[in-house]
Write a structure and sequence with these properties.
23% of the residues lie in helices and 34% in strands. The chain is globular, with a radius of gyration of 21 Å. It is of the alpha/beta class. The strands form 4 sheets. It has a 7-stranded mixed β-sheet. It has helices at 13-22, 69-73, 93-105, 162-169, 189-194, 206-218, 232-235, 258-264, 284-294, and strands at 3-9, 33-35, 38-42, 54-58, 79-82, 85-88, 112-116, 129-133, 138-143, 146-151, 177-180, 198-203, 225-229, 243-248, 265-278, 298-312, 315-326. The termini are far apart.
Length: 328
């Protein structure tokens, strides 16, 4: 059976395999093959692979399967991985315990298994957890070649947005001034700095900023990141007209910060505005808010309208990429 593979010279194979592994793009159901000096590395999502890699279809041999939680349970449980933490979302405590036990018994690597015990709450966007296995909610998450140390009980972090974050970071140019208005532990800020940008990263959550500073050191970009604990509306006075690129990843209330974004914007600035909206008009309200704040001082040009994921029935998490250009 043909599967998508990255084809790379054998001399570059280990480096490429590690890059794909860090991005969680390896297809573990098929073996890596060597053919005439080239490696064929099976992948799960060709669209998420860096554009400089060669993607081909190849008949990779199936790998001998390992025991997974579904083999033990008799049904496919829903879970996600964040470093060595496995996260489940079950209302029934007995079912949650059954799934946690199966995860431990399976070949899935996990030091900790947690169940969501509350919705995201408060202005710091954290939630409560029931720890079913292990004794720590701290972990190191690897994403597209970068490492992020964090505690899911103290900060907000979604591994599901890795591909979207990569989409944004790929647009960053060396020498840009990037302002991440709601930076968390640095999943936008760190890779943007790694691409040569000067980054200012702000967050209300003091723990998130502490982890961001550690992650900047961990990824060797501390000299290009200024991490600020505080409300971006108050920080903006020091950076008025500074930003070439603004990241506004606060989808439930980013519209409340559009005027601040316009204050931060340089004469030409790209804004990545995240929003949650009904499927009937997913981009209209965000664009209206941006135009209302930016015009007539700036021309507003839509660069891309991106549906990131389904958020709830008939609602989407979206990103609106726009360019502001100062009028003469």
């Amino acid at each position: 059976m043909n599967v998508p593979c990255v084809r790379v010279p054998r001399t570059e194979g280990e480096e490429t395999r590690k890059q794909l592994a860090d991005a969680d793009l390896l297809d573990h159901d098929h073996e890596i093959s060597v053919v005439e000096g080239d490696l064929y590395i099976p992948i799960v999502d060709p669209d998420a692979v860096s554009s400089d890699l060669d993607i081909v279809e190849y008949e990779a041999p199936a790998r001998e399967t390992q025991t997974n939680p579904a083999d033990i349970l008799g049904f496919e449980p829903s879970y996600e991985r964040l470093g060595d933490v496995v996260i489940i979302d079950e209302d029934d405590a007995d079912r949650a315990r059954e799934i946690a036990d199966a995860i431990v018994e399976s070949d899935l690597r996990a030091d900790t298994v947690v169940n969501r015990a509350s919705k995201i709450k408060g202005e710091l966007r954290v939630r409560d957890w029931d720890v079913l296995v292990g004794d720590s909610t701290e972990t190191v998450h690897r994403e597209y070649g970068h490492e992020f140390h964090l505690d899911i009980a103290m900060v907000y972090f979604s591994p599901r947005l890795a591909t979207e974050r990569h989409r944004i970071v790929e647009q960053v140019q060396e020498g840009e001034r990037v302002f991440d208005m709601f930076a968390g532990v640095g999943p936008f800020a760190v890779p943007a700095a790694a691409r040569g940008a000067e980054v200012v990263a702000c967050d209300l959550n003091e723990s998130a900023i502490a982890y961001l500073r550690e992650n900047a050191e961990r990824n060797d970009v501390a000299d290009r990141i200024t991490a600020i604990h505080g409300d971006v509306r108050e920080v903006a006075d020091d950076y008025e007209g500074w930003a070439d690129r603004l990241i506004m990843n606060l989808p439930h209330s980013a519209d409340e910060f559009v005027e601040t974004a316009v204050r931060l914007a340089a004469d030409e600035c790209v804004i990545h505005f995240y929003d949650i909206q009904h499927e009937d008009d997913p981009f209209g309200p965000g664009l209206e808010a941006i135009r209302e704040a930016a015009e007539p001082a700036f021309d507003v040009t839509v660069l891309e309208e991106k549906i990131v994921r389904s958020y709830a029935p008939h609602e989407y998490n979206v990103c609106l990429d726009v360019r502001l250009t100062k009028r003469e």
